[in-house]
Specification:
With about 650 residues, the chain is α+β, with helices and mostly antiparallel strands.
Length: about 650
């Protein structure tokens, strides 16, 4: 039994210790086989789970009913001729009491060959020990699956988040709260379906492999179909296919499923995620807002039993009615600037400059309004709020408002500063739709990889007549995050996308490789570059020399929650202690592209609190202006320079 006692140690096992323990377990496996038992069993019929035995204990114990249970051994405590085991199944844990004189000496030898992590079958009767603990008195024990690899230590647990995400199967074994999160996820998805089904919506399936990437503004994943000899795209949204079904007379449809977007990874984004898209003929965006409230409220009531939730320490009330305001009204409320009557682009640019909001030269008034909204409003929308009246410029698939054609009948719902859904009165004018597609094609030609492609067949479908339609898309993962108080999307995905450990980045398939001219980094036209003039005043040389500039290695880089600009860097500065620096460069870099890079940082600045996080230093970058827009490049140096090397 000594080998089982490793769970009582707090220290993490080394690789050497794991290998040694695995060998011990393999030896035990062979001994099991020598006894004529099977270390990896076959079918096993059980009558009860742990929770059933607890719920029915009085009746089971009174009648001395025989129960059969299967589960994983999570602890073994031996006392010579008797032993206790803690068994765990998906409903909980229960203690098992085994006596040599009951199961026989030969069978008791099997107990001595068991380890924590083994899956076993038990037959016996329910009783309570003199300490009052619910238990099963074993009459027989059967090995179902030998665990050759030891579980993490009992007290240490599986705490390393990277390991938890990569080895979710272990995470589920040792962390019951993780299992509960995913049980709730399933219940949430079931509840959403029940609400929609109750309104006579039909669940459908549409293609995941598309010939055109459309339905949303996002960069697609690209694949290749060998038989048809053509490039295909993983869907970024099912929208255009679902609207084709509305054209075909299927008045209420929805699709729950995976969509794929070739974008960055952070606390709220994973390259593949689950959404539900819903379309209702003869409805508009107001009906979709009502439906959104109903879906969220009824789901919270059913899964949690309440509409009041606590998310990251903040109390949020989900009950109806939710606040509703237009984007322009929201910008005015939180920034003090009113875009209501702004029709001149230069006036809009001037407002953005006054608000210190970064914009691109290609931005029209609509995108400028949206940029101001993202900067001043988004993170303030803590309680459930609908934002309506999105500019036409950022809503290529939404119907224009009849009173103001420059805005659309569209909404987004926000909770805790995060968007959870997007809805529209759908554009059903094929001529208008084609014009918007052509505008998107133009933007794509100008370098916007997220702009929509032209979809001639979709326009063709609209020419047959799309009835007035309301559309809605809800991010299931984000909804689950809120209802399970999970701070990152990785906590609500069984298997989030992770970069393989120690695996070199593979070359792109030949069909995806760009032409030589496109493969090279586009050269900078320095004639368009404007450099800020050097300072004419001298600084004190001795004071300047006190700036301690060091080479730092990026260990981790993530987007700061509730911030559009900030990236959080965890750095190796050569001291052996991680250094955290926040930098407002998310507009220029995605977090994952900076991991492993060697940068330059000033490390002797006093800590500065940003978004509640102490930023201990400053990363150096080079800034210039190009065609009216600010450009930024982090100072990166060769990886051969060690962390902590000082600049002179």
């Amino acid at each position: 039994m000594a080998e089982n006692k490793h769970l009582e140690d707090a220290a993490a096992l080394t690789d050497t210790e794991i290998n040694e323990q695995m060998q011990v377990r393999i030896d035990k496996m062979h001994k099991i086989e020598e006894h004529g038992w099977k270390p990896f069993g076959h079918r096993f019929l059980f009558t009860h789970r742990a929770a059933d035995i607890a719920a029915q204990f009085d009746e089971l114990s009174e009648k001395e009913t025989e129960v059969t249970m299967a589960g994983r051994v999570m602890a073994i405590r031996g006392h010579g001729k008797t032993c206790f085991m803690d068994m765990q199944d998906k409903t909980g844990r229960i203690q098992v009491y085994v006596r040599k004189d009951v199961i026989g000496e030969e069978n008791y030898a099997l107990i001595k060959l068991m380890d924590i992590g083994d899956t076993v079958g038990i037959t016996g009767t329910a009783f309570r020990t003199h300490m009052g603990e619910l238990s099963i008195k074993a009459a027989s024990v059967e090995m179902l699956s030998k665990s050759l690899r030891p579980l993490p230590e009992k007290w240490h647990g599986l705490k390393d988040v990277e390991t938890r995400y990569r080895q979710r199967y272990v995470d589920l074994i040792v962390n019951p709260e993780v299992r509960e999160t995913f049980v709730k996820r399933s219940q949430i998805i079931k509840s959403v379906r029940e609400v929609l089904d109750s309104h006579d919506f039909l669940e459908v399936e549409t293609p995941i492999l598309n010939t055109i990437a459309g339905g949303a503004a996002a960069r697609p994943f690209i694949s290749y179909h060998n038989a048809l000899d053509m490039q295909v795209y993983m869907r970024i949204a099912p929208e255009l296919y679902l609207k084709r079904l509305i054209v075909g007379g299927m008045d209420r449809v929805y699709e729950m499923g995976r969509v794929f977007r070739n974008e960055g990874i952070d606390n709220r984004h994973n390259p593949e995620f689950t959404s539900v898209e819903i379309y209702q003929a003869f409805a508009d965006y107001r009906d979709m807002m009502d439906l959104t409230e109903e879906v969220v409220v009824k789901t919270a009531e059913k899964v949690l039993g309440t509409t009041t939730i606590n998310y990251e320490g903040t109390t949020i009330e989900l009950a109806s009615p939710w606040k509703r305001m237009s984007m322009i009204e929201a910008v005015k409320e939180y920034s003090g600037k009113d875009f209501t009557n702004v029709t001149d682009l230069e006036e809009a640019r001037a407002i953005a400059k006054e608000l210190n909001v970064a914009i691109e030269p290609t931005f029209g008034i609509g995108k400028i309004i949206n940029a101001c909204f993202e900067e001043y409003v988004e993170d303030k929308l803590i309680q459930p709020t609908f934002i309506t009246g999105h500019p036409k410029e950022i809503s290529p698939l939404a119907k224009s408002n009849p009173e103001n054609p420059e805005i659309t009948d569209r909404f987004e719902a926000y909770i805790y500063g995060r968007e959870i859904c997007n809805g529209f009165t759908e554009l059903n004018d094929p001529i208008d739709q084609k014009e918007r597609f052509l505008k998107q094609v133009e933007e794509r030609a100008n370098g916007d990889e997220e702009a929509n492609m032209m979809d001639e067949d979709f326009v063709n479908a609209l020419e047959y007549g799309l009835p007035p339609t309301g559309g809605l898309g809800i991010g299931i993962d984000r909804l689950v995050m809120f209802l399970t108080n999970s701070s990152t999307i990785r906590d609500v995905l069984f298997f989030p996308t992770m970069k393989p450990i120690g695996k070199a980045v593979s070359e792109k398939p030949e069909f995806m490789q760009a032409a030589p001219a496109e493969a090279k980094e586009e050269p900078i036209d320095f004639s368009k570059v404007v450099i800020e003039p050097p300072y004419t005043e001298y600084v004190d040389f001795d004071t300047f020399c006190k700036s301690d500039m060091r080479a730092v290695k990026v260990k981790e880089c993530t987007a700061v929650p509730k911030s559009k600009k900030l990236l959080k860097f965890v750095l190796d500065d050569g001291t052996g202690t991680d250094r955290v620096i926040l930098s407002g460069i998310h507009a220029f870099y995605e977090p994952e592209e900076l991991v492993g890079k060697t940068l330059i940082a000033i490390v002797n600045l006093p800590p500065r609190k940003m978004m509640g996080i102490d930023s201990c230093g400053m990363l150096l970058s080079a800034i210039h202006e190009e065609e009216g827009a600010e450009k930024l490049n982090l100072m990166m140096i060769a990886d051969r320079v060690p962390a902590g090397a000082r600049l002179h």
